[in-house]
Every structure is written in C-alpha cells, then in structure tokens.
Amino acid sequence: MKKINFSAGPAILPASVITQAAAAVEDLDGSGLSILEISHRSKAFDAVLVEAEALVRELLNVGDEYGVLFLSGGASTQFFFTAMNLLNPDETAGYLDTGSWSAKAIKEAKLFGHVNVVASSKESNYNHIPKGYTVPGDLKYLHLTSNNTIFGTQFQSFPETDAPLVADMSSDIFSRRIPLERFGIIYAGAQKNLGPAGATLVIVRKDLLGTVERQLPSMLDYRVHIKGSSTFNTPPVYPIYVMMLTLRWIKEQGGLTAMEAHNERKAKLLYDEIDRNPKFTGTVSDDESRSLMNVTFVCTDDADTGRFLAAAEAAGCDGIKGHRSVGGFRASIYNSMPYEGVETLVNVMKEFN
Ligand code: PMP
C-alpha cells in the first residue's frame, strides 16, 4: 500500500516531482547522462540553477536587491552564518524564542555579538507565539522562526519593527504569501516544502552585507556565493534539481495564492476535527498561533495513544508520531500533502472510539 507521508522532514514531495526526479537519475532530459553524474559547471546544470533562481524570484517576488543562493549545510549552518555576516561584536540582534530551533539560532548568534531575546514562550513549552511585546529600536536585525516544526506554531503576521527581519522559514517557505520587502534574510532547509535534504535556500538583501569587521572564510561569506552564483564550490546538484522541479510544480498549481488556499483548507479540515472530537486535544494554546504546516495534538486520554497510532498506521498514515518534546501526534501537511491525505487521517479520527 502506498503510504501517506505525514513526516516532519524530510517530507512528502509531489508525486509528479518524484516521477521526474527518478527519470532524471537515469537520463536527464535526453542528454544521455544521469543528473547524478553531470558537472556542476555543465550547461545542463547551469540551466537548472538559472530556472530555480528565476522561479524563486517569481514566486516570492524577489527583486535584484536580493541574492538567491542554493547552499549546503542545512538551516543549522544558517543559524551562525546569518549572525557571522550581519552582526558586529558591539551590535545587538533581537531574537524571538519560539521553539527549539529558535533557541539553537540564539545560542549560535551569541558567538558573534549581543543577543536580545525580545520575547519567548519557553516557559509554556513553546505552546504559542508570544504577543504584546515591544521590539527595541536599536537592533541590527530581528530573527524569528516563522513556523515551529516541533511545536506546531506559526507566525500569522510578522512583528512590527524597523529592523530587517531574518527568518528561518525551513518549514513554511512557499506555503503562503509573505511581505518579502520586510526581510533581510530568509533561509530554509529544502527537506520540507522544497525537495530532498542537502540544499538550503537563502535569500539575502545585498546591502546588509559587508557591514561586519571580522574576516570571513570564503565559504561562510554570502558575497562570495552571490558572486559565484552558488557555484563557488560544488553545490548539492541533485537536491537543487529536485527543488527546481518542486518550484515548477508550485507555479503550475497557481503559485503562492493557490498554495495558501490549499494549505488553509487542509489545516481547517484537521483542526475542525481536533476541536469537535472529544477524543483529541490540540497542544497549541491559542488558535492564532496554530501552524498550517505541522498540526500537533494528543489523545485526551493518554491510554488511547498507542491504539490511535496503530489505527492511523493501518490506514496508511505514516510519520504522525509527535516529537519527543511534545508527545502525542504531529501531522505535517506541507504543500505537497493532498487534501485527500488529510481526509484519510480525519476519517480515522472520526471512526476512532
Ligand atoms: N529550523 C527549523 C524550523 C526546522 O524545522 C529544522 C529541521 N527540522 C531546522 C531548522 C534544522 O534544519 P537542518 O536539519 O536543515 O539544519
């Protein structure tokens, strides 16, 4: 039986992307070569990079004042890369602490300058996005994690500040429209909404670069990668190729407006069932903080947990076990999750007694 992949990441990809990606492993567009064996400086791969960048720019409305980079190292490398490139030792960056990934970004940034944790929901095990805080005026940038993959929370709007936002969008990039002009840097590991693990998308406003005093190793300098068009060294060729296919798929679906509507509809179906069914309880404390990508819930009676997991798995729902720090269940319903996949899970919930 084909499983429905609710995993948090690496995660589900569109079926058509997997078919094309598999074909390209045998033969890339009739070239007689596999995508796995072509040079990163070949014409064929150059075309992939050019198209992937153009699609990122088109879908998110990214102008020339930004560089678009396909790097390696995952979002975890960007935790320090961003601070290393933007923050001087005597400057302060603001951070919103909304989950374990934010906390890791904070830890790394402290290696390079002052960090002001402007708001945190740590005391309540990150079960909501903080509200009602004031962002100080003198920040070099304000960092946030737009979607908290583990805790099932998401910023539905972005904080008011004059400072450029630096955002880890690993688990909700391309899932909705965003006010791009407010962001100084956006970074995302590919393995949730974009492709297989191994590539990291970075969108960076060029005028923010070159403002730190420290010497930067070449591989850790955004300017070097911008100048080298992501081929300063050998980039992750295959993950970038699959990313390009996924971006094409997003465009074919109708772009971010269509993705947003699709994701809202799926999340509503699942949250409505969690709210209606006394057997289940959501783990996020206020509806406004709920993620449209990672839906977290528990069995109201913990004794039901094992039985519900077995029932979901018997229906083909794979990867719904919650992260160990939250427990219960987490259904990751990224862009590529079809509505019917969520319906299957909701039907298991309806029939569970
Ligand atoms: N940020 C977020 C929001 C994530 O969900 C993850 C991975 N689950 C990471 C960062 C870490 O990403 P990577 O493994 O690509 O370093």
Automatic annotation (TrEMBL):
Binds 1 pyridoxal phosphate per subunit. Pyridoxal 5'-phosphate binds at A75, S76, W101, T149, D168, Q191, N233, T234. It catalyses: O-phospho-L-serine + 2-oxoglutarate = 3-phosphooxypyruvate + L-glutamate; 4-(phosphooxy)-L-threonine + 2-oxoglutarate = (R)-3-hydroxy-2-oxo-4-phosphooxybutanoate + L-glutamate. Its cofactor is pyridoxal 5'-phosphate. Keywords: Amino-acid biosynthesis, Aminotransferase, Cytoplasm, Pyridoxal phosphate, Pyridoxine biosynthesis, Serine biosynthesis, Transferase. One of its GO terms (cellular component) is cytoplasm. GO terms for molecular function: O-phospho-L-serine:2-oxoglutarate aminotransferase activity; pyridoxal phosphate binding. InterPro entries: Aminotrans_V_dom, Aminotrans_V_PyrdxlP_BS, Pser_aminoTfrase, PyrdxlP-dep_Trfase, PyrdxlP-dep_Trfase_major, PyrdxlP-dep_Trfase_small. PROSITE patterns: AA_TRANSFER_CLASS_5 (PS00595). It is found in: Cytoplasm. L-glutamate binds at R41. It holds the Pfam family Aminotran_5. Its EC number is 2.6.1.52. The modification N6-(pyridoxal phosphate)lysine is found at K192. The keyword Transport does not apply. Residues 5-345 form the Aminotransferase class V domain. Pathway: Cofactor biosynthesis; pyridoxine 5'-phosphate biosynthesis; pyridoxine 5'-phosphate from D-erythrose 4-phosphate: step 3/5; Amino-acid biosynthesis; L-serine biosynthesis; L-serine from 3-phospho-D-glycerate: step 2/3. The keyword Transmembrane does not apply. One of its GO terms (biological process) is pyridoxine biosynthetic process. Gene3D superfamilies: Aspartate Aminotransferase, domain 1 (3.90.1150.10), Type I PLP-dependent aspartate aminotransferase-like (Major domain) (3.40.640.10). Homodimer. Belongs to the class-V pyridoxal-phosphate-dependent aminotransferase family. SerC subfamily. Catalyzes the reversible conversion of 3-phosphohydroxypyruvate to phosphoserine and of 3-hydroxy-2-oxo-4-phosphonooxybutanoate to phosphohydroxythreonine. This is Phosphoserine aminotransferase. The gene is serC.
